Amino acid sequence: MSGANRLDWIVGAGKPLTGRIRVPGDKSVSHRAIMLASLAEGVSRIDGFLEGEDTRATAAVFQKLGVKIEAPSPQSRIVHGVGLRGLRASAEALDCGNAGTGMRLLTGVLAGQAFDSVLVGDASLSKRPMRRVIDPLAMMGANIDSEAGGLPPLRIRGGSALHGIDYTLPVASAQVKSAVLLAGLYADGDITVREPHPTRDYTERMLSAFGWPIEFSPGLARVRGGADGRHALRATDVSVPADFSSAAFFLVAASVIPGSDLTLEAVGMNPRRTGLLQALRMMGADIVETDARHQGGEAVADLHVRATQLRGIDVPEDIVPDMIDEFPALFVAAACATGSTRVSGAAELRVKESDRLATMSSALRALGIRVDEVDDGATIHGGRFVVDPAKPVVIDSHGDHRIAMASAIAGQRCEGEFTIGDIANVATSFPGFDTLAQRVGFALRDASA
């Protein structure tokens, strides 16, 4: 962003983080709940819905496709499902905003419709590659056009006869897997997706909760094709757990800010999502799970975290896919650790909202941390965050919400203040982050205040 719409933060050394907090609802679950409730027969209620721009964009898309969605109160939605064949063509392009998850999963849903659709996004999303979704859907018979390089807008031709496939993902991706499974609801024949490494299984769990015949285990999912009309999604109520990716920023912050003692309530503990928790514990973090339970078909727990001195590790490659969204926060934890932390097998980070390897490495270097960057990872050498008051530092988040929030953690350990630029997109995934962070001890303020 630029000009009048640009938002920046100023951050500096904060207080120990204390108290009990609950972060917003899980973004991945919120997206999928809106989608499946819209395609179900009957009325579904969603509680704990993330009131972020990404998830609201997905809801708005389905409203344009003819689905009635009510918001009786914040974090709640009542969705009047229209069934698999009940969506109606939109006269205008469907705007996914900044939501990569929304666009990729919608591509699978819309590939099986009888009408044409166009999916567009904001400037950031328009630079994100969609070819790895387009290719397997094309193998199923979908007709999808894109800009050069597989970039949005995506033009999806209606009336395609989809068929089942047995597809092995070249790169582990829950979004690609989910797009193929959702297209399978309209396909003739079964759809099998195999993964080189198990990814988060939110789509599989939710399809099962909505009554669709599906078999899944780590690394494998098989769904019955729905072209014969023998199966339907049945309306169900969904309780969305607190988002682990949002909790991750506070897990790291409370681990590295001396004196912190913080509890995060009802955090989603899906094992395909909590790789960061494993990595932090390997680094010596003091994080205890309490009151473990199930909520809406997903495991949740309260996480009690206390500050301790972390140590550098070699992050196991087998947990990288389970923490791909949490690497900006992990980089800050690594910078606060003794010794060096090595990350490899994370090339996926280069095609997120920004090139997160390059952007986060640059941010840490600007704060005095040595980072050795390679194609698929980096080595972060622990040190001290320092800025020279005579040389003001501005960390450019490149409009990437996770870079902005991770940089805010670094600010709490910094000797001196600095600015984090272009933070408006934080609202896409974590509305109210700044207010919640200030409440528990962050020193963070709006640069324009």
Describe the structure.
This protein is an alpha/beta fold. It has two domains: 227 residues, Enolpyruvate transferase domain (UDP-n-acetylglucosamine1-carboxyvinyl-transferase, Chain, Alpha-beta prism); 213 residues, Enolpyruvate transferase domain (UDP-n-acetylglucosamine1-carboxyvinyl-transferase, Chain, Alpha-beta prism), CATH 3.65.10.10. 28% of the residues lie in helices and 25% in strands. It is built from twelve helices and 25 strands. Strands 22-24-1-25 form a four-stranded mixed beta sheet. Helix 9 packs parallel to helix 10. It is globular, with a radius of gyration of 21 Å. It starts with 8 loop residues before the first strand and ends with a strand.
Strand arrangement, major sheet: 22-24-1-25
- Evaluate the radius of gyration: 21 Å
Count of β-strands: 25
What overall form do the CA principal axes indicate?
A: globular
CATH topology of the largest domain: UDP-n-acetylglucosamine1-carboxyvinyl-transferase, Chain
Overall number of structural domains: 2
Residue share in helix: 25-40%
Average pLDDT works out at 94
Q: Superfamily at the CATH H level of the largest domain?
A: Enolpyruvate transferase domain
Question: Which residues form runs of ≥5 with pLDDT under 50?
Answer: none
CATH domain class name of the largest domain: Alpha Beta
Q: Figure out the total of helices.
A: 12
In whole angstroms, the N-to-C terminal distance is 18 Å
